[in-house]
Amino acid sequence: MDSTYLQTLNPAQVSAVKHSPDIPLQILAGPGSGKTKVLTSRIAYLILQHGMAPSSICAVTFTNKAANEMKERLTKLIGKEKAGELRMGTFHALCALFLRKYSKSIGLEGNFTVCDAEESKKIIASLLKEYKADLEAKDISLKDGTVLSLISKAKAKGSSAAEFMKETRSRLQKSKSSGSSTNSISGDIDMIVAEIYHDYEKTLRQNNSLDFDDLLLFGLKLFSENQHTVNWCKHVFVDEFQDTNVTQYELMRAIAVACCVTVVGDPDQSIYGWRSAEVGNLKRMQTDFSSVKQILLEQNYRSTGSILRLSMAIVDQDRSRIQKSLVASHPAGTIPVLRCFSSEQAEAAFIAVEVKRLVAHMGGLLHWGDFVILLRFNALSRAIENALQKEGIPSRVLGGHKFFERLEIKDLLAYLQLVDNPHFTPAFMRAVNTPSRGIGEKTLSELLARTQKSKISLLELIEKINDGKTPDIKPPVKRKLQSFVTHIRLLKRMAKEGTSPADLIRRLVEVIGYQDHLRQTQPDWETRWENVQELITFASDVNVDLPDETRELAYDGDTIGIDGSRDATPLRLFLQASMLSSEGDHQNEENDKEKVTISTCHSAKGLEWPVVMIPAVEQGTFPFYRSEDIEEERRLLYVACTRAQSLLYISHASQRKVAGETKGKELSGFISAVAKQNPSLFTDQLTSFTPDERAVISKVLDRPKPSDSDVARSVAELSVPSSAIELSPLMAMLFHLQPSSIQASCS
Ligand code: ATP
Ligand code: MG
C-alpha cells in the first residue's frame, strides 16, 4: 500500500483531498490539472484517514473503463480488498445494479433486459409503420433514429411519455391560440413522436425491458421513493460533472440525499450538450447544496507549455467563456505542427510515415501505443486505417464499431437474452432465424399478434402450438420453431444447473452450428469467429470479478423463467455487463499498448497520450456542419488538443471525398483565427534530435524504468546546456519529469 500519495500532490490539490468530508465540494479546473487524480486521492483519504467504509462510497465515472482505471489506481492506494468494495461505475451501471436488487420495489421484474439503441430503433421502426399512411398523407418523412433521439432527449429531461404528450399538446394549443404561424408540419411531427413515445414505452414494458435512458429514470424513481436503497451511501463522487444531464444530476441528489458530495469538472470541456448534458448543473449545485465549497486547480501536469499555449488560444476565442488560469508545469517543448495536404490520402500517408519515423527515431522511447489519432467522427478513420496498415503499423479503433454491437456478438447474446427473459421480443426475432430457419415474417407477425392478445411470451406460445388452435402454421414450420425452442430450453436447463455463461456460449455455438453459419454467410468469418472466442473470454472474466454487491445479487434471483423456475443469475450479470459496456471498455489492454489508437475526440475525454494527431481540421468537418452549437465544437477541439502530453499535430486537406464526392476544403476557422493572431503557436517543421539528445536517450534506455534522477544524471554527464533542455523535444517526451530537478542537477 502506498502511503506517500499525498506527497505527489501540490498544495491546492492537497487541500481539496483533505477538505472536510461533510461539506460538499466542487473542484473546477482545466484539463490535466489532476482533477481525476485528486478525486481518487480523496477517496483514499476518506477511507484511510477518516475510516470511511469503502462500501459506503459511491463514485460515478463517465465510462466503465474510467471506473476500472480508478479502481486500479485505488487498489495501489488502499489495497485490493477495500478497492473491491467501492461502488463505482457509470450512472447506468449503478442504476442497473440496484434496479436488479430492488426491482420489486418499483414494480419491475428482476430479469428485465437492457435494450440497446439498435433494438430500440427496431421497435420504433415497427411502430412507425402504423403511422405510415398518416405520414404519407402529410408528406412527412420521419426516421426511426430521429424519433429515438427525440424520445431520448425527453427522457434525459425526466419527461415521461404522458408528460411529453401533455407538454406537446399545450405547446400546440398555445401557438394555435396566439395565432402564431408555427409550422404545422413540426406540430404534426411532435404529436406523432409523442404518440410513438407512448407506444414505445408500452412495448418495452411488454418485453420486460428497459432502454438506457430508462435505467436512469427508473433508478431515480427507486432511489427517491425508497430511501433504504441509498442508506448505505456516505459520500458521492462524480467525475466529468460538466457532462451530466438533468436526470443524472437528480440521481446524484437522490443518492446523496443524506450524505455529502464531491464533484470535479470543467465547463470548458463540456462536449455532450447534444446529448442533453447541462453544464448549468455546476451552478445549480451551488443553490441545491448551499454550503458547497469551490476549489480551483491551476497547474497543468499533462502537456508541454507549447501545447497548452495553443490549446488555450483555441478555447479563448469563445468570448463568453469565463477565464480560468492554467499554468504548464513542463517546459515549452516542441511547437505543435500544422500541415496542409492535397488530399485525405496524402494526409493519412503522412501520419503513418511520421508515426513510423518517430518510433524509429526515438530508439525505443516511443511505442505504437503512445500515439493517438483523434477524429471528429468515426467515418474519417478509413483512410487513416488503410495508411497505417500499408506501413505495417498495428492500430485499434477506440469507440468505433463497438464490440458488443457486432453482428456475431449480437446473434449469440440474443439467444442468451431469451434464455434469461423469454418476453424480450427483439431477441426472439433475431435468434429465431439465426442461422436461417426459413421462418417467414408473416408467421412471425402472426405469432406476435397472438402473444399480445394472450400476454404470453412467444416461446410459451410455440410450446402450445400443437394444441390444434394454430392450423395456419404449416407442420414443417412448426417443427422448426419447436426445435428452436428446444435449444432455448436446453440452455435454460444448463444455466439453472449452474453452467457458467462461458460454457453456455460454447454449447450454444455448437448446437446451432454457428461456426458453419458464419463460414457460409460472412466473407470475414474468421475474424468474426475470433470475436466469438473473445466473447467467451469476456464471459469467464465477468464471473471471476463479481463485486460484492453483485455476488449478493447472484443468489438473490427471484424471478420466473419460461418454466416458472428460479433464474440463474450469473447469466444475467454477464448479460448486464455486456449491455452496459461502453466505448472502449472491451479492449485487450495488454495488446493495446502495442497499437496506435484511432479514436473520436469524444471518446478520448479524460485520457492522455504522448503524441496526438488531429487530421481533417477543416470547415464543415471540425466544426461539424450539422452541429447546432459552434462553441461546443470549439471546446471539442480544445479537449482533443489537451489530450497531448509531448507532441501535437494538426492537419487538413485541401480536398476531401465526402459521401463519394470530392470537395474543396478549407482549414478550420478555429485554427486559422488562432494562426492569424499568433503564427508562432505553430510550426511546419518536424521534430528531430541533436546527437546529445540521442545519447541521452540511449543512456536512459539502458535502464528498464529510468527514474527522474537517472535521467538527470545522464543529462548532467553529457553536460547538455540547460537552455537546450528547456526547448528539447526529448525533455518534452519525458513529460513526467519535474523540469526543476533536471535543471538543478545540470547546473
Ligand atoms: P481531464 O480534465 O483531461 O480529465 P484531469 O484534470 O482529470 O484532466 P488528471 O488526468 O487527473 O487530470 O491528471 C493529468 C496528468 O497529470 C496525469 O498523468 C496525472 O498523473 C498528472 N498529475 C496530476 N497531478 C500531478 C502532480 N501534482 N504532480 C505530478 N503529476 C500530476
Ligand atoms: Mg479527468
TrEMBL record:
Gene Ontology annotations of biological process type: recombinational repair
InterPro entries according to UniProt: DExx_box_DNA_helicase_dom_sf (IPR013986), DNA_helicase_UvrD-like_C (IPR014017), DNA_helicase_UvrD/REP (IPR000212), P-loop_NTPase (IPR027417), UvrD-like_ATP-bd (IPR014016)
Reactions catalysed: Couples ATP hydrolysis with the unwinding of duplex DNA by translocating in the 3'-5' direction; ATP + H2O = ADP + phosphate + H(+)
Enzyme class, spelled out: isomerase
CDD domains: DEXQc_UvrD
Enzyme Commission number: 5.6.2.4
Binding site for ATP: 29-36
UvrD-like helicase ATP-binding domain span: 8-304
SUPFAM superfamilies: P-loop containing nucleoside triphosphate hydrolases (SSF52540)
Keyword DNA damage set for record: yes
Residues of the UvrD-like helicase C-terminal domain: 305-606
Keyword annotations of the record: ATP-binding, DNA damage, DNA repair, DNA-binding, Helicase, Hydrolase, Isomerase, Nucleotide-binding
GO CC terms: nucleus
Single GO MF annotation: ATP binding
PANTHER family: ATP-DEPENDENT DNA HELICASE SRS2, UVRD / RECB / PCRA DNA HELICASE FAMILY MEMBER
Family the UniProt entry places it in: Belongs to the helicase family. UvrD subfamily.
Protein name as catalogued: DNA 3'-5' helicase
Taxonomic path: Eukaryota, Fungi, Dikarya, Basidiomycota, Agaricomycotina
